[in-house]
Amino acid sequence: MAMFQRRRYGRLSQHAFAGQWGMVKLGEPGYKERYYSEKFGVSTAEDIHEVRQDVVSSITEYGLLLLHFFHNLFILYSVGLLVTISG
Questions:
Q1: Domain residue spans in the chain?
Q2: What pTM, to 2 d.p., does this model score?
């Protein structure tokens, strides 16, 4: 599964967490390319496309894992196998 693979992209730079977007300049022409360059360290259109596909794939995979977990939780609860801890 893709979620168990190591992340191929560099870590977020410190200013991304501090809210200082520096060179991205949201809303100005070319901001998407600057965003991907700043956040993932990629600059070509092909690399950006690959990163976007990986991000969408990861989000979809985690969503499906959550649905699977809650579905199984509901089944266990509905058949009475889920034991609740009460004081």
A1: 10-77
A2: 0.56
